[in-house]
Amino acid sequence: MLKTTELFINELKERDLKYRDIRTLQDGDDLVEVGFNLDSTRIQIMIFFDASEKSVALRCFEVTRVTEEQYPNALLSCNELNNKMRWVKFCIGQEMNVHAEADALVDETTAAKVTMELMMRMASIVDEAYPMINKAIWS
């Protein structure tokens, strides 16, 4: 396990927060999965700690799924959210899921706190954005 991952796991434990899984990927990156039951939906945030221990990538790959008919409205909604909200970028993946993404540069002194802050912000922002996206795709 990478030192940055270990520091983050310790931070989760200190805050009595649970994680689902930790794995080391083929490229040497570590992946930590954290689930959230939000007011508006349930999400899973995938946290990728770079093998260089210089960056972290947070991804929520399934904010919601859209159909081809809903795609234009979903894309407009993502653009609107990206203009309105800081910290998290919304996009639509090839599999037609709305994603939320955040990235940060970290080191051993900042990894735990920065990753925790971004993870909590992402959960809060997705919770706020989810009804907006659904309103856009179902109108």
Written description of the protein model:
By secondary structure, this protein is α+β, with helices and mostly antiparallel strands. The protein has one domain (3-137): Yope Regulator, Chain: A. 38% of the residues lie in helices and 32% in strands. It is built from three helices and six strands; from the N terminus they run H-E-E-E-E-H-E-E-H. The protein has a six-stranded antiparallel sheet with strand order 1-2-3-4-6-5. It is elongated. 29% of the residues are buried.
Could you list some keywords that capture this structure?
single chain, 139 residues, alpha+beta, Yope Regulator, Chain: A, 6-stranded antiparallel beta sheet, 38% helix
